[in-house]
Amino acid sequence: MAPRWKWKGAEAKALAEPVSETVLELQSSFAQTEASGFLSSCNVLLSVEPEQADLLDRCCFGRPVVNVEKDKRWIQLSFEEAFFLFYKLKCVKISLHGCSLENEVDLWRSMSSFKPNFATSYKAYSHLRSKNWIVRSGLQYGVDFVVYRHHPSLVHSEYAVLVQSISGIDRLKVWSDIHCSVRLTGSVAKTLLILYVNGIVKTENMNLPLCLKDYTVEEQTIRRWSPELSREDETKT
Question: For the segment 109-120, what is each residue's pLDDT rounded down to a tens digit?
Answer without folding.
Answer: 999 999 999 999
